[in-house]
Amino acid sequence: MAEPLKNVFTREFVELLSSTWKKLLPNLNEEQYAGRVLGGNWAALELKQRLSRLAKVTAQELPSDFDKSGPLIRKLTTCLVEANLNISRFEYMFIPEIIVELGLDSFKESMKTIEHVTSYTTCEFAIRPFILKYEAESMQQMLLWSSHSNQNVRRLSSEGCRSRLPWSMALPRFKKDATLIVPILENLIADDSLFVRKSVANNLNDISKDLPDLALKLANKWHGANNSINRIVKHGMRTLLKAGHPSTMLLFGYADIKTIQFSSFNLNQTEINFGESISFHFTIENKTSRSAIVRLEYVVYLMKNNGRQTKKVFKVSERELKRKEKLQFSKTHAFKPITTRKYYSGEHGIALIVNGIEFEKHSFLLNM
């Protein structure tokens, strides 16, 4: 079994931090610092809780006046970089939390510090409390950052204002009105950095879940500029594509489902044990005399602990069928241990999805 991520926070890691920062914090008692971090219920803390503990203990070593602690945080970050530590790794994401801990009432100094720190380790979570407290000022700053010379800062301007950023607090207002986000995405949709453009796609995808008409308007505006932008737009519209949203399907040239016929959809087994795989096959045919673009997916109906089923969609293929072309497909789905999903015994199912439309569910039993 893989080592839990939280275990990267070893005593050696904490001691390395304190010895590096001792250069700027001469009054730092390294032994006491390590004791406050690793003491108490440390062993029971999960990953985010350990990050928060590190942030709080470090904040206690800094001045409560953020006009003084902000410059120190920037220098501390530089010290870590100069010590050849890879602070882009997730274990250093406690540093942005210090800014929130000490600087939420000092907007200007916090923005200066976030801009510096995010060049090394992302501040996408730290910026969100500031957006909630200073919406207009924060989003104006984000707009300025969208033209920054550093790609990490430009990415922050998009990633930090996503309405549904995973593992973070939501931004409820932006689920209803994304007006302040749009100019940022407009600045970044053709960014030189793929790292930045992928964030634009994720932000667009978030918008599509609550404001599909706005997402489609942006997609129509951007699509067709070049292949690079087309790929980003398509990735950003993935939720609406999976849902078979008619206007979205039309935008990307998918064939009318009435022109496509599928048959011979079967599972190779009706019962499997956990750790095994189930296979299925089907035939698909373009009934017209014109070529047709098809998006093939399948949905697995997974049994939950409460006896109900939940759906998970997987992609099979996307291709152009020539006129009257008929193709056969086979696919295997494995039921093996993964950290992001728990399986339960009972009736499961698989159904085929063609251009966003679901067809013919077949059931099978999974034994744990």
How would you characterize the overall build of this protein?
The protein has 368 residues and is α+β, with helices and mostly antiparallel strands. Helix content is 43%, strand content 20%. Among the domains are: 1-123, no CATH class; 257-367, Immunoglobulin-like, CATH 2.60.40.10. It has helices at 11-21, 30-38, 47-59, 66-82, 94-103, 107-117, 127-133, 135-145, 151-159, 172-176, 182-188, 194-210, 212-222, 227-236, 238-242, 246-251; strands spanning 260-267, 271-273, 277-286, 292-303, 309-321, 326-334, 346-354, 357-367. It has a 5-stranded mixed sheet with strand order 2-8-7-4-5, with no helix packed on it. The radius of gyration is 25 Å and the shape is globular.
Quick structural summary:
The chain has 368 residues and is an alpha+beta fold. Helix content is 43%, strand content 20%.
Topology:
Blueprint: H1 11-21, H2 30-38, H3 47-59, H4 66-82, H5 94-103, H6 107-117, H7 127-133, H8 135-145, H9 151-159, H10 172-176, H11 182-188, H12 194-210, H13 212-222, H14 227-236, H15 238-242, H16 246-251, E1 260-267, E2 271-273, E3 277-286, E4 292-303, E5 309-321, E6 326-334, E7 346-354, E8 357-367
Parallel strand pairs: 2-8
Antiparallel strand pairs: 1-3, 3-6, 4-5, 4-7, 7-8
Helix pairs in contact: 1-2, 3-5, 4-5, 4-6, 5-6, 7-8, 8-9, 9-12, 12-13, 12-14
